[in-house]
Amino acid sequence: MEILLWDKENIERELIEEMLTNVGCEVTSVGDEQDCLSRLRNKQYDLVIFDQALPDLDARGFADELARINPLTPIAMMATLNIEFYEEKYGDSEIDFIITKPFDLAQLRNLVEEALVFRRKLKEAGPSSR
Amino acid sequence: MVDEFETTGDRRRRSDRRSGSNRRSGKDRRNTTDRRTTPDRRSDKDRREGWGEIEGQRLQGALTATATVAHLFSQPLTIIIGYVDLLLSNAEEEKTKKKLMIIKEQLKTLSMTLQDLRNLREYNTIDFDGLTLLDMNLREARKRD
Hints:
The complex is a heterodimer.
Chain A: E1 2-6, H1 10-22, E2 26-30, H2 33-42, E3 47-51, H3 59-69, E4 75-79, H4 83-90, E5 97-100, H5 105-125
Parallel strand pairs in A: 1-2, 1-3, 3-4, 4-5
Helix pairs in contact in A: 2-3
Chain B: H1 10-13, H2 44-49, H3 51-90, H4 94-118, E1 125-128, E2 131-134, H5 138-144
Antiparallel strand pairs in B: 1-2
């Protein structure tokens, strides 16, 4: 499973990359929003994970852009607040998964497995299913 | 944070911890009601609207504070938990594994507390040695200890 990870924080990015590698994924990690979009334009990934913890990030707009580039790639957002808040705010967005920090290896593995199943469903249903 | 208006009724459940006698008058302080005669500092508007408005403001303040704490603590906790997990997955020595497991258990408790903060919906307080604390799952946590 190939994962594209965007996290601005170096230490956190390195850690999550190592955690994802530990659960058997191949990871491309970037620290820049534009770099993330351009990587997705040039390669197929099974999952994109990005960190929401940036005050000026338009998470909805960013997820829209990701889904526009590749509608078959599931999108996961790492978040810090109450899940109900995100469900209300992003429930109708292109964000498919929200993983709340702090999370451990088992929770990250669950996310990867669920994303894999979801990607299969998306593929079967076709790009217009989004 | 001291609940100076004692709006939650916790005081009724507390034992009176005042010392026996007043140092100046020598009278038994436990028979007096001086602690209950503090001036009402509510504004006229608050008096008219009752405590509901103030309770709502307190809840809003508490929610802002807890969301800030949850947001700020999330990243460092993710990094610590993540590295402990990675160390655990590679550790071979039993002693090291055991210590890492203890750290992980404590981190789990911290994560649960953070989750309690995120789930805060009501402004309830409990007395903790004379201080008023937000009532999350502290009673449960005490039982766990």
